[in-house]
C-alpha cells in the first residue's frame, strides 16, 4: 500500500477563497483523522471519522471548516472562506481500530498558505 | 487536552541510548500508551505502543511502570537520524491527542 495520500502537497490561496484538501486513507482502515499543525498550537485534532461517520468534530475551529467522508477511500476537508490564520500544515491519518489498539498512519501533509 | 507530560527537550550522544520519559498519571486501565515521532516537515510516524507489559520492536523499547502512570521510550543506539520530536500519547475513544512532545537532539 502507498500509505495515506494527501493532495495537494502545497496550496497558496487568497483570503476569502474556498480551499479543499483531499485524503486517501490506507485500504482496509476504518478510522480517519484530520489534524492541523502550527508553531503556536502544535498538532491539533480537528475531526475523527469511524466507518465513514463523523464521531467527534469538537476540534473543528468554526463553521468555515467542514469535512466529509463519502466512502471508505476518500475524505475532504474544506475551508470556506479561508483566512490568513488558517495557514498551517494539515495532516490526514488513518488507522484500523481493533479493540483498544489504534496505531495511526499519517500522510505527508498539505501546507496551506492563505495570503 | 493532552493527558501526558513530557520534558520539552533532551540531548543524546550519537551511539548512546536515548531514554525519553513520559508521565500519564490519568490513564485508565484499558487505554494504551502510544509513542510517535515527527521528523521535521514530515507527518508523525508510529513507533511503539503498550498496555501493561514492556514492549520491544525494531525501532525501540517501551518500559511501562507497574502502576502505569509513566513510561520510558528507549532508543538503544541513537543516530543522527533519530533527531525528532517524540510524542507520548494516550488514546481515548479512538482519539489520539498530541501534546507538545520532547524534542530529541542527537549530537555527534
Can you lay out the helices and strands and say which pair or pack?
The complex is a heterodimer of chains A (115) and B (108).
Chain A: E1 5-7, E2 10-13, E3 19-24, E4 31-38, E5 42-50, E6 53-56, E7 65-71, E8 74-79, E9 88-95, E10 104-106, E11 110-114
Parallel strand pairs in A: 2-11
Antiparallel strand pairs in A: 1-3, 3-8, 4-5, 4-9, 5-6, 7-8, 9-10, 9-11
Chain B: E1 9-13, E2 18-23, E3 33-38, E4 45-50, E5 55-56, E6 61-64, E7 70-75, E8 84-92, E9 95-96, E10 102-107
Parallel strand pairs in B: 1-10
Antiparallel strand pairs in B: 2-7, 3-4, 3-8, 5-6, 6-7, 8-9, 8-10
Q: If you had to describe this structure to a student in words, what would you say it looks like?
A:
The complex is a heterodimer of chains A (about 120) and B (about 110). In chain A, about 0% of the residues lie in helices and about 55% in strands. With about 120 residues, chain A is mainly β. The model of chain B has no long low-confidence stretch (mean pLDDT about 90). Chain B is built from no helices and ten strands. In chain B, the strands form two sheets. In chain B, strands 1, 3, 4, 8, 9 and 10 form a six-stranded mixed beta sheet that branches. The interface of A and B includes residues 45, 56, 91 and 97 of A.
Keywords:
A: 115 residues; four-stranded antiparallel β-sheet; 55% strand; B: 108 residues; mainly beta; six-stranded mixed β-sheet; globular
The sequence of SSEs of chain A as H and E is EEEEEEEEEEE
Largest sheet of chain A: 7 strands, mixed
Terminus-to-terminus distance of chain A: 36 Å
Query: Mean of residue pLDDT of chain A?
Result: 94
What low-confidence regions of chain B span 5 or more consecutive residues with pLDDT below 50?
none
Amino acid at each position: 500500500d502507498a500509505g495515506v495520500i494527501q493532495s495537494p502537497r502545497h496550496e497558496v490561496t487568497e483570503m476569502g477563497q474556498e480551499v479543499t484538501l483531499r485524503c486517501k486513507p490506507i485500504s482496509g482502515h476504518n478510522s480517519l483523522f484530520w489534524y492541523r499543525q502550527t508553531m503556536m498550537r502544535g498538532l491539533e485534532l480537528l475531526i475523527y471519522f469511524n466507518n465513514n461517520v463523523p464521531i467527534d468534530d469538537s476540534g473543528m475551529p468554526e463553521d468555515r471548516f467542514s469535512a466529509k467522508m463519502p466512502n471508505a477511500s476518500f475524505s475532504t476537508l474544506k475551508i470556506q472562506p479561508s483566512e490568513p490564520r488558517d495557514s498551517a500544515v494539515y495532516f490526514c491519518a488513518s488507522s484500523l481500530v481493533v479493540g483498544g489498539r489504534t496505531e495511526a498512519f499519517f500522510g505527508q501533509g498539505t501546507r496551506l498558505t492563505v495570503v | 487536552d493532552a493527558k501526558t507530560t513530557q520534558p520539552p527537550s533532551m540531548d543524546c550522544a550519537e551511539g548512546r541510548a536515548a531514554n525519553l520519559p513520559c508521565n500519564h498519571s490519568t490513564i485508565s486501565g484499558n487505554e494504551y500508551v502510544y509513542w510517535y515521532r515527527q521528523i521535521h516537515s514530515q507527518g508523525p510516524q508510529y513507533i511503539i505502543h503498550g498496555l501493561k507489559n514492556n514492549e520491544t520492536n525494531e525501532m525501540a523499547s517501551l518500559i511501562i511502570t507497574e502502576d502505569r502512570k509513566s513510561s520510558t521510550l528507549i532508543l538503544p543506539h541513537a543516530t543522527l537520524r533519530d533527531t525528532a520530536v517524540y510524542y507520548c500519547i494516550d488514546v481515548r475513544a479512538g482519539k489520539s491527542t498530541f501534546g507538545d512532545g520532547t524534542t530529541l537532539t542527537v549530537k555527534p
